[in-house]
């Protein structure tokens, strides 16, 4: 018997579940219109607006997403491929604004593990280059530290494994259907209820 993956959405206080075959969670079709899928995340490349790093961070947050955090070489290659096609450099979610020289993905609160610095970077030129940007289309996806008040395009990321947010009933049903699942209002057993209660209770 094929194992089913159960995905819960909290919709106006009602638990909606998607029963979906294994592997169906990672599908490009579940990204919002205009977003691009890669390895369990959806990405949007904002090219119409040039904003500061903090403004880019805020704009991503208003969409229940975060300024992109690049954690692997494969992800960096994906970002570079799309950025090269669209043109220009983009803000990334990295910063050492809190502790100089200690770079972290401020958007998700994790220190850098994978890096792809431009040769000689980070150099903290003029002592106020605390934010991270891609170098542009001719630089092989390299990163550079730049002034946070500089303006640029930016990339928002929605990690589908981390995402949890409120939605309407119709939106939830539509999302379940996009995942090729069976939509139902679901009863919850004791263990599931305990887990959901802990997830939803304010800390």
Short account of what is shown:
By secondary structure, the chain is an alpha+beta fold. Helices cover 22% and strands 30% of the residues. It has two domains: 5-25 and 163-200, no CATH class; 28-159, Mannose-Binding Protein A, subunit A (Mannose-Binding Protein A, Chain A).
Care to describe what's here?
With 203 residues, the protein is an alpha+beta fold. It has two domains: 5-25 and 163-200, no CATH class; 28-159, Mannose-Binding Protein A, Chain A, CATH 3.10.100. 22% of the residues lie in helices and 30% in strands. The chain has helices spanning 53-61, 73-86, 169-178, 190-200, and strands at 5-11, 14-20, 36-38, 41-51, 66-67, 90-95, 104-105, 110-111, 131-134, 143-146, 152-159, 182-185. The strands form two sheets. Strands 3, 4, 5, 6, 7, 8, 9, 10 and 11 form a nine-stranded mixed sheet that branches. It has a three-stranded antiparallel sheet with strand order 1-2-12, covered by helices on one side. A hairpin with an 8-residue loop joins strand 6 and strand 7. The model is unreliable at 1-26 and 185-196 (pLDDT under 50).
